[in-house]
């Protein structure tokens, strides 16, 4: 149990450092191992996919949403200095999304997901993060998806960290 808590603490610490680093990188700026890009989340019930990556690793965010108008979102992808962890965060910088998501899926290609979290509201304007209930999303080997019939249709942030499949010599 202590080992699992330590591993969880490590993942949270890595995620916090990555997210804070990504928050201070201007959109469109990039380094060889980390980048943050803007994209529009479009309502209308049509399935859309946005993807970006670093090197051989890619994150894709597939969704369908209803209501409102386009919202500006950000995707940050990063590779750890030792190339063993690839992370992807997708979020609405204004905090809460006003769109109703009918589905979502994040996929990390070339990794095995070790940690993932999803939020209905992210910290903004004095408000704190509001995580989705664990039963609202499912973490697979390389995907994080909504759980049919349990997802509340609210999504403002999705993060996944995967271990790369490099073989050490």
How would you describe the overall organization of this protein?
This protein is mainly beta and 169 residues long. The chain is built from one helix and eleven strands. The strands form two sheets. The protein has a six-stranded antiparallel sheet with strand order 1-4-5-11-7-8, covered by helices on one side. The two termini are 30 Å apart.
What is the topology, as strand order, of the major beta sheet? 1-4-5-11-7-8
- Report the radius of gyration as a whole number of Å: 15 Å
| Biggest β-sheet strands, sense, barrel | 6 strands, antiparallel
H and E order? HEEEEEEEEEEE
Total helices: the number is 1
Query: How would you sum up the global shape?
Result: globular
Quick description:
With 169 residues, the chain is mainly beta.
């Amino acid at each position: 149990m202590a080992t699992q808590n330590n591993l969880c603490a490590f993942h949270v610490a890595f995620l916090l450092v990555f997210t804070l680093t990504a928050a201070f990188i201007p959109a469109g700026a990039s380094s060889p191992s980390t980048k943050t890009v803007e994209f529009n989340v479009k309502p209308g019930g049509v399935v859309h996919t946005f993807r970006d990556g670093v090197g051989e690793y890619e994150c894709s965010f597939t969704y369908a949403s209803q209501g409102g108008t386009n919202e500006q979102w950000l995707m940050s992808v990063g590779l750890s200095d030792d190339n063993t962890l690839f992370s992807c965060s997708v979020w609405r910088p204004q905090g809460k999304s006003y769109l109703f998501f009918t589905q979502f899926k994040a996929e990390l290609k070339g990794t095995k997901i070790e940690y993932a979290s999803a939020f209905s509201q992210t910290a903004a304007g004095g408000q704190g993060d509001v995580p989705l209930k664990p039963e609202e999303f499912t973490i697979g080997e390389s995907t994080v998806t909504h759980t049919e019939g349990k997802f509340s249709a609210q999504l403002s942030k999705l993060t996944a960290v995967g271990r790369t499949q490099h073989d050490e010599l």
